[in-house]
Design brief:
- The complex is a heterodimer of chains A (about 220) and B (about 200).
- Chain A is mainly β.
- Chain A contains one helix and 13 strands.
- Chain B has an eight-stranded antiparallel β-sheet with strand order 2-13-4-9-10-11-6-7, with no helix packed on it.
- The chains are: A mainly beta (about 220), B mainly beta (about 200).
- The interface between A and B is large, with 53 and 49 residues.
Chain lengths: ~220, ~200
């Protein structure tokens, strides 16, 4: 290897040599949306530099310090099929959680039937209890974690998702709540739009980052 | 942005415009244990900068204790002078013994923490036989933030002293709005005889 590519091997800024397989690495950061009292955060293929198509077989959303505006808010997502109207795809999903209260009074590992869906078209919950609010008593509460989406562009298979999150939920004594949500959009249409929102009021603050993962050289 | 960097933006091969930090996963530091009482990642030491990313991932690989004990971690808000940040956590695991006589999935009430400053362990009784070790990961979100608590999510597979495979899930938060500027890993007894812990920043 010679020339300008060779000259740039080992660099970490400006111009760098692409990783084997191209794309600048296996993980490519596509878009970061920062909430500021937003009703929704939307990732739409072809809009605002967002890619949600066959470019990547796997997409990952990262949630950084997601903070709700009201104490009953549940963080959730839905998809919209290519050419479709509205975030209302059919979902079958599972939801289980591990939780523990700060006062040590309550803890469990349990399936939560309120969080799953059986061929539902509602937004899929990623948390189940109310998140902390900006009322001066729970300003430090938030949600962090990730959501993996597989094969969104497939027109043969359903689209699976897997999520792991930790959040504080509002109670007389605050909980640490570790949720595990997975399931599938039961459609063979491509999904090219994903929306996140709270069940009540806005996403007060926080970031959602979208990454694409390559699977071939 | 102009010139050659602009001309190469959006390319996928050859020369490409670097992401911030040179990639999404950025290896910051790997420590290799050799009978160490602890392995500590401290702000300002060996390139560790907990302010540089929104998310950090520790990958621990083949952690082998000198004596059967628990592998755990804690945070510091005073650059490693003390590792005693208040935490509330959850712990559950799945296990299966080599004799194929016992399996379970359940919450571990004796291993979680409720507003405790103790180290958070990834399961008790990591085996210390020559072939016994454990591996896993710990995600830490926004440690330098001064508004919110700091969440973490981890998982470890380890070889229990009594010859079980253990799959341990740990999550929770450092219940502080002070910045976490150091993270320490250690065994509850003895030393980390061997193994590596790598710290990555996710851009």
């Amino acid at each position: 290897m010679t020339g300008i590519i060779s000259d740039n091997v080992g660099r970490t800024s400006g111009l760098i040599k692409a990783a084997s397989g191209g794309g600048g690495g296996v993980w490519t950061k596509i878009k970061t949306l920062t909430a500021s009292a937003d009703a929704t955060l939307d990732f739409v293929d072809g809009s605002d530099d967002v890619t949600l198509d066959s470019t990547y077989p796997i997409y990952v959303f990262k949630f950084i310090n997601i903070h709700a505006a009201t104490d009953t808010a549940i963080f959730s997502f839905q998809g919209n099929a290519s050419g479709g109207s509205g975030y209302n795809e059919t979902i079958t999903s599972t939801y289980f959680e591990s939780y523990h209260q700060e006062n040590d009074a309550d803890s469990s590992l349990t399936y939560n039937t309120s969080g799953d869906q059986g061929q539902g078209t509602a937004f899929q919950n990623l948390s189940q209890q109310g998140l902390g609010v900006a009322d001066g008593t729970e300003d430090d509460m938030c949600l962090n974690g990730e959501l993996w989406l597989f094969g969104l562009s497939s027109t043969t298979f359903v689209k699976h998702f897997i999520s792991s999150i930790n959040y504080n939920d509002k109670s007389a004594s605050v909980y640490s709540n570790n949720t595990f949500v997975s399931g599938y959009f039961n459609t063979t249409s491509a999904i090219d739009e994903i929306q996140f929102k709270m069940s009540a009021d806005e996403i007060d603050s926080g970031k959602i980052k979208l990454y694409g993962l390559k699977d071939s050289a | 942005m102009s010139g050659i960097i602009a001309q190469n933006s959006g390319r996928h091969t050859g020369l490409v415009k670097a992401s911030s930090g040179g990639g999404v996963w950025n290896l910051i530091k790997t420590y290799t244990a050799s009978s160490d009482s602890d392995l500590s990642f401290v702000e300002g030491t060996d390139g560790v900068d907990f302010t540089a990313y929104d998310e950090f991932v520790f990958k621990f690989n083949n952690i082998h204790p000198s004596a059967h004990s628990a592998f755990g971690f804690n945070g510091s808000i005073d650059t490693g002078s003390n590792y005693n940040v208040t935490k509330t956590t959850t712990v559950f695991n799945a296990y299966h013994d080599e004799a194929d006589s016992t399996t379970n999935l359940g919450y571990r009430t004796g291993e979680d923490l409720a507003q405790s400053t103790a180290f958070q362990n990834f399961q008790q009784d990591w085996g210390a036989d020559n072939d016994q070790a454990g591996s896993g990961y710990l995600h830490l979100f926004s440690p330098s933030d001064t508004t919110f608590v700091k969440h973490f999510i981890g998982r470890a597979s380890n070889y229990h002293d009594a010859d079980y495979a253990i799959d341990c899930y740990v999550a929770g938060y450092f219940n502080t709005t002070s910045a976490i500027d150091a993270v320490q890993f250690k065994m509850s007894t003895g030393t980390i005889d061997a193994g590596t812990i790598s710290l990555y920043g996710i851009s």
